[in-house]
Amino acid sequence: MKTPNSRPVVLCLSGHDPCGGAGLQADIEALLAQGCHAAPTVTALTVQDSVNVQDFRVLDRAWVLAQARAVIADLPVAAVKLGMLGSVEMVDTVLEIMQQLPGVPLVCDPVLRAGGGGALGQDDVGYAMRERLFALSSIATPNLPEARILAELPDGTADQCAEKLLPYIRHLLITGGHGDEREVHNRLYSRDGSQHTFVCQRLPGSYHGSGCTLASALAGRLALGQELVSAVQFALDYTWRTLRDAEQPGHGQYLPRRLPLDFC
């Protein structure tokens, strides 16, 4: 039985990053920071570091289904966060899992590229997410390069990509920061025509795991019952702080500091 002190459970379907900057470790840390409990279900194993991804292997769908079913049978899932799926078959696996969670908020982070640019799945994975998963999702959180892939608009603006994608999904958050602008504009589009732009100061350097951090924090806020626009603002502010305080333990990108130093 759920006790008054129990934390909302977020089922995370994502890949494992051995350097700990992105993937399931990012999900776990970001959700802990929101006061949520992460239930990490591994979809793929990767060979990557803070520089780039070298290889990946998608798990057998039976293993992924078994992990998710064990969580669903035991824990009250309040939200679901999707990260790296890696194959069209895994998209279908998620569809099967979500049939057991009607009405549960689903945050779809369409992970198609690593921070260093390496592919984490073919473009047909993104198209399958758009065609099959977006309808079940509360919101998708692509960056602009991912939005261009999903919308099949190689040079499209955020507005153009949103126009192409909103027939598939109710809410779309297209994050900025991939150009050389002095301010980062993150744009939330909704199918009802409403738009919100969240502006933040651009930080120096490049970061590994920022997208995972944002999507997980957003899933956590929705699991806590926060209204969507407010949850987006909260998750963006939190993510910016993790990047402001990021560290560079390796030879590549900075890793977000998702937990305070005195966290216990």
UniProtKB/TrEMBL annotation:
Gene Ontology terms describing biological process: thiamine biosynthetic process; thiamine diphosphate biosynthetic process
Domain Pyridoxamine kinase/Phosphomethylpyrimidine kinase, first and last residues per copy: 17-253
Signal sequence coordinates: none
GO molecular function per UniProt: hydroxymethylpyrimidine kinase activity; phosphomethylpyrimidine kinase activity
One Pfam short name: Phos_pyr_kin
GO CC terms in record: cytosol
InterPro entries: HMP/HMP-P_kinase_dom, PM/HMP-P_kinase-1, Ribokinase-like
This enzyme's EC code(s): 2.7.1.49
UniProt cross-references to SUPFAM superfamilies, sorted A to Z: Ribokinase-like
Pathway the protein acts in: Cofactor biosynthesis; thiamine diphosphate biosynthesis
CDD domains (UniProt xref): HMPP_kinase (cd01169)
Protein name listed in UniProt: hydroxymethylpyrimidine kinase
